[in-house]
Design a protein that fits this description.
Layout: H1 3-17, E1 23-27, E2 32-39, H2 49-62, E3 66-83, E4 86-101
Length: 102
């Protein structure tokens, strides 16, 4: 499968499932990549519903089996959310799953 087709497929899946904000897939060549997902500290990275979606995206990307090479925390980000009562700084925590397609 060509790289362009994979990129388009992933983009369509993200738009249709509405998961663009919580799960991101970063292809690295044609044989693997990194899936990142947002999680809340009180749920932990294993209890996040975004983890399930990340594995679904990996399965759709690879089309066959895959191997998890490494998992771990990735860089979080802070963003400012402004509302009527003022502004809040929200810290997001992300988890990464590096995989290789078989």
């Amino acid at each position: 499968m060509s790289t362009l087709v994979k990129f388009v497929s992933i983009g369509v899946c993200m738009c249709l499932t509405g998961c663009g904000a919580g799960v991101m897939l970063h292809p690295e060549g044609q044989q693997g990549g990194v899936a990142q997902y947002l999680y809340q500290a009180h749920h932990g990275h294993l209890g996040s519903p975004n983890r399930t979606e990340a594995f679904h995206q990996i399965s759709r990307y690879c089309l066959r089996s895959y191997t998890i090479i490494k998992e771990g925390p990735t860089r979080g980000r802070k963003r400012v959310v402004e509302g009527i009562a003022g502004s809040d700084v929200i810290t997001e925590t992300w988890w990464g799953i590096r995989f290789r397609c078989e």
